[in-house]
Amino acid sequence: KTYDAAPAPCTGVPVATVKSLVPGAKTAGKEIPSTDSKLRRTCSWNALKGYDYRWLDVSYEVTASDDAAEKEYQQRVAEKSGGGAVPGLGDGGYSVVNLNTEDKQQTREGVVLARAANALVVVTYSGSDFESKKAPETSEINKGAIKAAKDAVASLRSGAK
User: Residue 45: beta bridge partners?
Assistant: First the structure.
């Protein structure tokens, strides 16, 4: 198998990407505790700048084989219907953006799934404007999530043995 362990997630996305997607966030990110950090690692960045809130999560998940990763990838794509393929992203890329409204506050969330050999990269990027109660445009969230996913896949591949 290509990948034996999940890489350090907080260095999977360059500082410049973090700054552009999550203005005001601590660029080092915060690693989320995992039940098995050899197989799954996640880093999170979030910040409120003025009334604009942004949140970015990048996860690496390592499976036993390319086939296992492909099966998991296909299962997750099926669960997140309504999106579309992202050409040129790993061995398979998929993106979906949804709008959620809670107490009249809109939040737009983009999820990008990518498979690279026996690893999955999962990026979640979301945003809200607490002044207007509106969410950022679909294109902004989708482009941001895809940019972070491309960076994370490139980082994964460059770290492969």
Answer: 56
